[in-house]
């Protein structure tokens, strides 16, 4: 299994609050609500200027609207794969770890959200993705996977805690 790690992000909230939000995936449905807010969309367009087209942002917004959340999982249809993918929590270690597993994917994978309290009342977060890829697949998607995990960490760091 190959592992990819995000950069460490700082979240301006205590670790207990961050863990409480991230260990119940129903709480991530706020992402759907925020992407409907014109002010948030304007901010995202400003931040993504030159990196993501308006069309790509609109596509992301549509895909996020179709996600389904419950306490232990988030699911969505992935058109490119022609299948429903689910990210399911398989382990919780309060207040420092949430481990998830990918279901419905042709490639087995796991995601660890690691949380560490800081002395100033903030939380440091790192994401680790583990996937089983053969040599050729790894070479094809490695760059996108590294970029994607950092973007996911950025998105989770921006959630209001």
Q: Can you tell me the CATH superfamily? A: START domain
Q: How much of the polypeptide forms β-strand, as a percent range? A: 25-35%
Q: From the coordinates shown, what is the CATH architecture?
A: 2-Layer Sandwich
Order of helices and strands: EEHHHHEEEEEEH
Termini separation: 32 Å
* Percentage of residues in helical conformation: 25-40%
List low-confidence stretches: none
CATH class term: Alpha Beta
CATH-assigned fold name: Alpha-D-Glucose-1,6-Bisphosphate, Chain A, domain 4
> What is the mean predicted local confidence, pLDDT?
89
Biggest sheet character: 8 strands, antiparallel
Q: Any idea how many domains? A: 1
What report would you give on this structure?
This protein has helices at 15-22, 30-34, 38-47, 54-65, 135-158; strands at residues 2-5, 9-11, 68-69, 73-78, 83-93, 97-103, 109-117, 123-131. The chain is an alpha+beta fold. The protein has one domain (2-158): START domain (Alpha-D-Glucose-1,6-Bisphosphate, Chain A, domain 4, 2-Layer Sandwich). Strands 1, 2, 3, 4, 5, 6, 7 and 8 form an eight-stranded antiparallel sheet that branches. The radius of gyration is 16 Å and the shape is globular. 12% of the residues are buried. The model has no long low-confidence stretch (mean pLDDT 89).
